[in-house]
Structures are given as structure tokens and as C-alpha cells.
Structure to design on (359 residues):
């Protein structure tokens, strides 16, 4: 859909409001229109301005039987990683963990414990995807280095699992409890969890495919958390989390700046075309893109039936997020961003990356 067509639809729908006081927010109307096009998809979005949540909305189908609401819990796939990184960063701020301390001094995955390269691993390298591990170890096979730690970017969920188990072992506290004490409670996040909780009953958005709603295993059993994937959260709680990160809550100005400093170059456009970021790097839990004098901290997540994206400008503290659970994909996510945050650099960057990869 061409940019601007959503806005026209919003104006059209708003014109039918029965009374000015009952007029629907244009962004809510836009989400509702997109949900009608994708009846098997739950759509959530939020807008952040100046480090505060300015708007959030949810539309579509939660599970094929009931509508998605603000209480709906989305699986946000790899958007789990910024949350886990925040847990580690706040432990660094508290002086309980060193960003550059050797993980092997406390614990190391048995599969690589005998490899001398394991001595190089630190929380900084794990959080910036420089662990040297693959994304995930092959099923029923041992974990092994695919490159030397600290020698380049290599997206790795295994690196996040390593650093989470390191802080758990060092502090003798379950990682979920560390997240609760250091991030969830301080930020007032009551609708987020790595694993199953009784309050999740009847609230989970179920992924869909072309054959309908296939069902899902849902959150993992308590104690079986994964630091890199599959956290469940409402749009409102994740938006509050992003706003807090944009404000630098809980960290000194120096550590907050370090969190968003590019640690290693990451892939960007295949060839430079208008709209491409000037540079792409991996910081600590967030990817950082530069567009001239502007920066964006970005992270995305994707699993079967799940698409998620969150971003913010560290200087203006403006940002947005979009969650899809169902048949949505990246093009639909961009349509949501076009309706919610139409001037976002994410839109131009997404289109430019597609063009850069075209033959």
C-alpha cells in the first residue's frame, strides 16, 4: 500500500463519528482497518514521545474466538533480548556484575569449557553478539564456536543464554527472579513473564497460519526460561519498558550511553540506496542505526506466526513498537508503523533495504 493511503482511510472513518466526543483515535481506526484485512491476526502498537507512552492500541483476533485487547499477551520472540540485556545492565549498575569480567571465572557451558577461547567471553561480548557462537546449537549436537569471540558480529541466542546463566550462577538467584527484582517491579511491569503464570490464562495471542489457528504450546514451564526468546507481554508493558530505556532509567548517564554505543559493525543494506542507514552496529541489547545526525535503537523479533519490532531515538526519546501474532509479516508491520508513526526513519530504511537487495 502506498504511504498516505492509511491516513486517507483514517479521515474517512473519523468522518462517520456520531459525536465529536465519541470520535475514535485515528490510530485506533487504522489498526481496526488493518485487522479487518487480517482477521486471523492480533495487532498491537504503541507510540512513544519524549520518553513517555503517548498512545497504545490493540485490534484483531486473540485466538480466533475472542478479540485482542489491551490485556492480550503477545509472544514477542527476540524482543526478549533487550529485556534480558536490561537485567544484566542494571546488575552492572549495582556493581554486582562486571561488563568485562570473564564469564568462565564463574561458569561456562560444558560443551565449550575445555576450549581456551571460552576464557575471552564477557557479558559485553555476549550482549553485543560477539560471543562467536551460532544462533542456536544444532539439535542434539554440542555447542561449538563458529568464530573467535570478539572478532566480529554473529547473531546468537546462545550468547544470551550464556550471560543469563552466568549472572544466575554468580548471584545464586534464578534469572527470572533477577528480572522481577531489577526490571519488572522497578518499572511497574505486571504483565510480562518469561514462563507460565496463572494470570496468563485466557490472555495469550495464538499464532495463526494459512490453515487457521494451529494452537501453541504457550509459555514455558516455570523454571525453564529462555533469555533470548519467547517472553510474553502486553503492548502497554513493553511500551513502558522501551520508554524507560529511552529515558535511561536505572542507569548512570555514562552506563546508559555505553549501552547504546555501537560495539561492533552489523549488516545493513546490501548496497547503498537512498534511505539506507549510514551505519549499522550492535550495541548492548539493541541494534543502533545512524541516519546522518540521527540515531535509532532498534530490535526486532520473528517466529512462526509472530512479528515484533521496537525502536526509539536516543536523543529525542521518540519511538514506537508493533506486535503481530497471526498471519502478519514484515510488510504488515510496516503498514502499522505507517499508520502509527508515519515519519519514522524505520519506514524509509525498510524500503531502502528491500531495494538494496533487489537484483
Amino acid at each position: 500500500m502506498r504511504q498516505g493511503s492509511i491516513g486517507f482511510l483514517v479521515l474517512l472513518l473519523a468522518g462517520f463519528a456520531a459525536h465529536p466526543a465519541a470520535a475514535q483515535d485515528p490510530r485506533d481506526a487504522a489498526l481496526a482497518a488493518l485487522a479487518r484485512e487480517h482477521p486471523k491476526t492480533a495487532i498491537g502498537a504503541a507510540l512513544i514521545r519524549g520518553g513517555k507512552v503517548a498512545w497504545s492500541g490493540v485490534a484483531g483476533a486473540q485466538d480466533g474466538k475472542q478479540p485482542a485487547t489491551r490485556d492480550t499477551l503477545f509472544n514477542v520472540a527476540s524482543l526478549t533480548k533487550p529485556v534480558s540485556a536490561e537485567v544484566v545492565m542494571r546488575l552492572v549498575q549495582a556493581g554486582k556484575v562486571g561488563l568485562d569480567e570473564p564469564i568462565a571465572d564463574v561458569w561456562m557451558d560444558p560443551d565449550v569449557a575445555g576450549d581456551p577461547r571460552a576464557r575471552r567471553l564477557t557479558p559485553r561480548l555476549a550482549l553485543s553478539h560477539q560471543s562467536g557462537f551460532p544462533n542456536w546449537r544444532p539439535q542434539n549436537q554440542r555447542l561449538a564456536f563458529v568464530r573467535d569471540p570478539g572478532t566480529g558480529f554473529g547473531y546468537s541466542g546462545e550468547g544470551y543464554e550464556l550471560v543469563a546463566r552466568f549472572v544466575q550462577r554468580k548471584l545464586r538467584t534464578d534469572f527470572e527472579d533477577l528480572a522481577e527484582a531489577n526490571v519488572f517491579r522497578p518499572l511497574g511491569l505486571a504483565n510480562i513473564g518469561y514462563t507460565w503464570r496463572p494470570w496468563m490464562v485466557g490472555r495469550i495471542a495464538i499464532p495463526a497460519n494459512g490453515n487457521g489457528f494451529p494452537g501453541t504450546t504457550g509459555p514455558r514451564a516455570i523454571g525453564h526460561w529462555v533469555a533470548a526468546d519467547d517472553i510474553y507481554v502486553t503492548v502497554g508493558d513493553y511500551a513502558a519498558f522501551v520508554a524507560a530505556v529511552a529515558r535511561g532509567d536505572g542507569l548512570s548517564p555514562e552506563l546508559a550511553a555505553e549501552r547504546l554505543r555501537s560495539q561492533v559493525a552489523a549488516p545493513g543494506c546490501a548496497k547503498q540506496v537512498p534511505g539506507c542507514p549510514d551505519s549499522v552496529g550492535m550495541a548492548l541489547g539493541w541494534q543502533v542505526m545512524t541516519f546522518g545526525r540521527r540515531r535509532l535503537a532498534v530490535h526486532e523479533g520473528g517466529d512462526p506466526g509472530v512479528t515484533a519490532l521496537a525502536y526509539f531515538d536516543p536523543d529525542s526519546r521518540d519511538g514506537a513498537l508493533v506486535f503481530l501474532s497471526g498471519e502478519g509479516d514484515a510488510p504488515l508491520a510496516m503498514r502499522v508503523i505507517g499508520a502509527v508513526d508515519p515519519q519514522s526513519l524505520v519506514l524509509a530504511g525498510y524500503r531502502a533495504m528491500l531495494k538494496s537487495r533487489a537484483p
Q: What stands out?
A: The two ends are 22 Å apart (CA to CA). The chain is about 30% helix and 15% strand. The mean pLDDT is 90. Residues 5-357 form a domain with the Beta-lactamase fold (CATH 3.40.710.10).
